[in-house]
Amino acid sequence: MKKTILFGVVALAMLSCNKDHQATKESLQKKQVAAQQASPALENFRLAINEMNRPEYAPTKEYIQAYGDELSDERKQILFEPAKALIISTGITERELVKETNNDVNQILNKAFKIYISQTSKK
After folding, report:
1. Domain range summary for the chain, segments of one domain joined by +
2. 121 against 76, higher pLDDT
């Protein structure tokens, strides 16, 4: 009788561990799929950053004196669509993004830069 109870407890423990292992494995697979989907958006955002830093978009001395380090509207527009795509690739819907940021370019760019930094610093 004791052996049967002990065997039952061991079998339940093994079954429980197996389910935990499967859940962990599925969670890891979902994260990998999300990372693969985010990769093109991350790359597009990186390319937009490179584009915005080209000499023809560089701020003039007058602009720097007037606005400091703030990006010009032209440079923001280069980043805007890739930034939205990067944020949406993390699983946020466009509707949630608009609700959260009121479609403010500065808030969207700040959110995208945070995601970009967190994703690229992990590598």
Report:
1. 35-121
2. 76
How many angstroms separate the Cα of 39 from the Cα of each of 31, 51, 53, 93, 108?
Answer: 12, 18, 21, 17, 19
Q: How far apart are CA 30 and CA 63, in angstroms?
A: 45
Q: Which tokens in the block code for residue 88?
A: 């949406």
Overall average pLDDT of the 18-37 stretch = 60
Using a CB cutoff of 8 Å and minimum separation of 24, what contacts does 108-111 make? 108/80, 108/83, 108/84, 109/71, 109/76, 109/79, 109/80, 109/83, 111/83, 111/87
When pLDDT is cut at 50, 70 and 90, the band that residue 19 belongs to is low
**C-alpha span between 26 and 3 (Å, rounded):** 34
- Predicted TM-score (pTM) of this structure: 0.66
Phi and psi (nearest 5°) for 72? Answer: -70, 160
Q: Are 88 and 80 in contact (CB under 8 A)?
A: no
The confidence score (pLDDT) of residue 7 equals 61
Query: Rounded to whole angstroms, how far apart are CA atoms 112 and 103?
Result: 13
